Amino acid sequence: xxxREFLRLTGLMSLGIAFGSxxxxxxxxxxxxxxxxxxxxxxxxxxxxINALGGIKRFISRGDIVVIKPNIAFDRLPEHAANTNPEVVxxxxxxxxxxxxxxxxxxxxxxxxxxxxxxxxxxxxxAKRAGAEVSHIDDRRxxxxxxxxxxxxxWPIYKDIFEADKLINIPIAKHHSLARLTMAMxxxxxxxxxxxxxxxxSINESLADLALVIRPTLTILDAVRILTANGPSxxxxxxxxxxxxxxxxxxxxxxxxxxxxxxxxxxxxxxYLAIAAKRGLGRIDIxxxxxxxxxx
Length: 296
Known about the structure:
The protein has 296 residues and is of the alpha/beta class. It has one domain: Rossmann fold, CATH 3.40.50. Helix content is 28%, strand content 22%. The chain contains 9 helices and 12 strands. It has helices at residues 3-14, 42-52, 86-98, 114-120, 123-130, 160-163, 203-213, 252-261, 271-278, and strands spanning 34-38, 65-70, 103-106, 133-134, 142-146, 154-158, 166-170, 172-176, 180-182, 218-227, 240-249, 291-295. The strands form 2 sheets. Strands 1, 2, 3, 4, 7, 8, 9, 10, 11 and 12 form a 10-stranded mixed beta sheet that branches. Helix 3 packs parallel to helix 5 and helix 7 packs across helix 9. It is globular, with a radius of gyration of 18 Å. The N and C termini lie close together (12 Å).
């Protein structure tokens, strides 16, 4: 274990997180709630995290139509950590196709010009090369969905995510000026229509409301690089910290709660996570979950 890794694990332990491992701290027959993989290769750690959860075939069946939702919101290069790492996205596409998926769809409702965002992020090229169908958002494909939430009663949501057999969320972990952090739950802002600014008036309740109707098959949090300040768009490399980490799990609330620790926080420090946990949509008590740590 190198010094960086030692300091990282020590810091997480101080937050009350216990790690299991293949060396015996966790029963090898158990599938962890959260898998955390560290290493120099984004592709390798993505694969390792998914394998620790039981492998891609636990989630993807032959003939599935799969929607993969990365963050492609900003006209930034991968080095700026404003969008999901393209290697992580491409790796998940390849794994799904190897598992027999019929079609992989990749899209996002961007903040900046979608043509530039898709190209600058590197995601369009990487995902297409891996075999995905990459498309821009078509406003005609939003449908009103009854949510029955606290802040959202009905809202237009991109119908492709409901038509898909499987839904995989691949956000990046970064600072957000309003929500404090944007990770898995916040990433669903990229599949909703209408004026997203209206949600900012009650952002925490709105994010928890969206989680009532958007339930991903798998969540993979990209922390290869994280944006520590001036998010969500960033732009200054001084705000970027390299972690070389990927976090995966079925429970998007738990994945976000773990992701918060990368910023020195706990899940309960994020209001939308606390609301979601109170509603029974996931867990933020990650100290009580089975977390497997893999060094690749």
